[in-house]
Amino acid sequence: METGKECTMPKENSKRYYWLKLPKSYFSHLEQKKMRRQEHGKDMQIVYLRMMLLSIDKNGYIYYQGVYDSLEEELAEEFDEPVEIVSETLEYLKENNMIAIDENSDCFVPESLELIGSECSSAERVRRHRGSLKALHCNTDVTGGNAGVTGSNTGVTSCNVEIEKERELERKNTFCSEPENPPSEPPLISLPLNDKTYHEVFCDDVDGWKELYPAVDIVQELRKMKGWLDSNPTKRKTRRGIRRFINSWLAREQDRRHDAEGGRTRSEEISIPKSKEEIESEIYKIVHNLISREALERYRDKIHELIRLCCPFEIFTQEQIDYMKREWKMEPLHKENSLIAPREDIYYFFDDKLGIIKDDETNNVP
Asked: Which of 1, 102, 110 has its CA nearest to residue 48?
């Protein structure tokens, strides 16, 4: 994907190219599987990939331009997709902490930062040209062999000279390749990962986060992260997920400080308590996004127990959790202990789990 950004080089300006580096197992990740199971899951995956592509040359941000009434409408126009699909995608991504949208409707996509690859056009040109020179080298060997030993040696020597020129040009332009961290620079802090290795954080990383989260003491928060990961070894992150963890932590701290400076906390923003009906309606809206209607009908007599098993604690608000404790005398399992919502091919498992003896009756779902 070509962008208009410039890369400083001696004697010329060069454009920079960006791409997403998706691992082979990308669509096997749990969040992708869960997204695919939504009603418009395939379309939502396409919208999310296009959002990452749109943000890779903007440090993971998609900026709301104010041309349309909402970010959803602008993205729908940009991607030529229905607004409803885009809205459904954004709602899913927010619920699963895969994006953050600020008060200006600007959208931050942290995963795009993990998957970005880039090079300046001179490096791309050298790489492409060097490949053509290798092909020319082979052709010269064959042609020279037919013409005689002298012709062959001349062709090889000419190609070698050209290759050395290109290699020298590439060496001169290596400063354009933006290495993640200079090898001689010591890490500022190291965060433990679930495979017993460490993710090293350097000063350049901190400088980038300071621009994104100006209200946050980045170094102090990194120390808190290290302490939390040391104290919770079973919840340490993967190498692929650690940067998302850092950005989510810093984004929450930025929001918290912003609210504190405004003289209110998030809990104070809701001044009118919600009725029981409103809270229960919110809960069932979340439940219907995770569990199929067929499964809800099948287990209508054990609906609360089904919600407890299959709808993770983390997707509900504290108000909703308190309501379940008070009215239903239960609370959902945490994400690591929850079960995948029942499908037709595993009903037998949930029949046994919930102690259900099925009959032909059907009633409405709450």
From this structure: 110
Cα torsion angle, 139, 140, 141, 147, sign = positive
Token pair belonging to 335: 């994400």
**Phi, psi of 12, deg, nearest 5:** -155, 160
Q: Which residues contact 136 (CB under 8 A, 6 or more apart)?
A: 159, 162
3-state secondary structure of 118: strand
Which residues, including other chains, have CB under 8 Å from residue 318's CB and lie 6 or more apart? none
pLDDT tens digits for 305-357?
999 999 999 999 998 999 999 999 999 999 888 888 888 878 888 888 887 65
- For the segment 22-48, what is each residue's pLDDT rounded down to a tens digit? 888 888 888 888 999 998 999 999 999
Contact present, 57 and 120 (Cβ < 8 Å): no
Residues whose CB is less than 8 angstroms from the CB of residue 242 and which lie 6 or more positions away in sequence, other chains included: 191, 193, 199
Enclosing H/E stretch for 244:
helix 242-261
The token duo for 54 is 């749109």
CA dist., res. 36 & res. 26, Å (int): 12
Question: Which residues make Cβ contacts (< 8 Å) with residue 182, sequence separation at least 6?
Answer: none
Q: What share of the chain is helix, strand, coil (3-state, %, to 5)?
A: 60, 10, 30
Output the six-digit token pair for 120: 């300046």
Q: What is the pTM of this model?
A: 0.36
C-alpha triplet 197, 203, 208: angle, nearest 5°: 105
- Beta-carbon contacts of 194 under 8 Å, excluding residues fewer than 6 positions away, are 236, 237, 238
Residue closest to 220 by CA, chosen among 235, 206, 205:
206
Instruction: Return the half-sphere exposure (C-beta side, CA atoms, 13 A cut-off) of residue 263.
Output: 0
Angle (CA) 164-167-172 rounded to 5° is 125
